[in-house]
Amino acid sequence: MELIEHLTEQKNFASIALTKPYSKILFGLRSGKFSSVKEGLKSLTIGSLLSMIQIESINVAREF
Prior knowledge:
Helix content: 40-55%
Order of helices and strands: HHHH
Strand content: under 5%
Radius of gyration: 15 Å
Largest sheet: none
């Protein structure tokens, strides 16, 4: 994975971060909204998480 934490200019950081499916987490880490990737992942909706890992849908069946 390409390291982008060394980029000091927001424009340069954004140009690379926006090409990643997990850009929300990258921006959150950079801004201090998230203190870890785990925290960023926990903030995602299931739809965002599925999109990030490039799964279109998932069926969950419960048996009682």
